[in-house]
Design a protein that fits this description.
This protein is an alpha/beta fold. It is 36% helix and 22% strand. The protein has one domain: Ribonucleoside hydrolase-like (Inosine-uridine Nucleoside N-ribohydrolase, Chain A).
Amino acid sequence: MRQKLILDTDIGSDIDDAVCLAYLLANPDCQLLGITTVTGEGQKRAEMASALCRIAGKDVPIFIGAEEPLVVAQRQPHAPQAAVLPHWSHATSFTRGEAVRFLQQTIRAHPGEITLLTIGPLTNIALLFKADPEIPALLKGLVMMAGVFTHDRLEWNALLDPHASAIVYRTSITVHRSIGLDVTLQVKLPAKEVRQRFQAPLLRPVLDFAEVWFQEREEIVFHDPLAATTIFDPQICTFQRGRVKIELGDPERLGQTHWQPGNSGGHEVAAQVNPQRFFAHFFGMF
């Protein structure tokens, strides 16, 4: 049976968001019900998502979500990969101010059926949970690319809106899953191999976006695609139960994910990954 899924993304900053969306559009087991954008230049992010949907031949609703964090200053105001959008056909008209309402109505229309996949800062999701406290209980699960749990370091999605992260991690959900840097940094490809392997029609615009990324970096780390694949192949990663708390007290460590293992905890974090299984599954979709 196809998995109903909604994607919340900051596509246009790190290239792995576009890689993730291409994977979801190519996956025959994924029923993508909608896409919401988050952080600065939401219009450009929506246009990038639209370009991939058009290549895939799928009419997926796209909504521009929150462009500013709840409390802290914006650290991701631009979507640099949108510079190559003129190369690709895409929609230019999107609904603003309705992302949270779309999430709420769609989840309520499919109780217990939708997995919410978040691969950016958690602003939209915090606003959703605050606007309708019944929503978390109506989700099949929440899967996030967020955090780092075995090293003393910060992770970009969690720190971009630390107060939103704290709200989401304090929320009880049947499946509350995080895929963090502990495992995602183990799945990467150099630019040369990406150029060789991203030849499928749906990966061509992603490669075009990636050329902007490669101007400053020499590889792609598959952070977000890894999180997505765990929804469809649970053997790609192993998970450990415990409790996650978000640092809000130390101004220098805002958004840090503090991990306490324990079977009674309400969170799952990825503990190990099988990179070979991941890449076989990912490229098998194309």
